[in-house]
Write a structure and sequence with these properties.
The chain is mainly α. The chain has one domain. Helices cover 95% and strands 0% of the residues. It has 2 helices and no strands. The longest helix is centred in the middle third of the chain and has 79 residues. It is rod-shaped. The chain starts with a helix and ends with a helix.
């Protein structure tokens, strides 16, 4: 009877060791999966930040283009109304705007 109990205990211990090894392997797989998810998440975050920066640049360029077009339209209206003095002032302002934008581009 004691041998039988001893044999049963050994079987249980062997099964427990086997179960523990399986659990350990599964935990390793889980950790690896978590690492991969973390890396993918960081890559997505990095790409989002890059897209935000590119979007801001595009918005600034769009605003700049709209401003230049507004100046050009005002210049055309002034010339149409034979207000050459106003047209000259607007042309000068447009040149200054373009010069400032070019300086900003050079410093980037």
């Amino acid at each position: 009877m004691i041998r039988r109990k001893s044999k049963n205990i050994r079987k249980r211990m062997k099964r427990l060791r086997s179960d523990m090894q399986e659990i350990s392997r599964e935990q390793g797989k889980i950790k690896e999966g978590q690492r991969q998810v973390r890396e993918k998440f960081e890559a997505v975050e990095s790409e989002c930040e890059l897209l935000r920066k590119e979007t801001n640049i595009i918005m600034q360029q769009s605003m700049s283009t709209q401003l230049r077009l507004a100046f050009m339209f005002q210049i055309l209206k002034a010339r149409e109304n034979h207000d050459l003095d106003q047209a000259a002032k607007l042309t000068s302002a447009l040149r200054e705007l373009i010069a400032r934008e070019n300086q900003q581009k050079e410093t980037m």
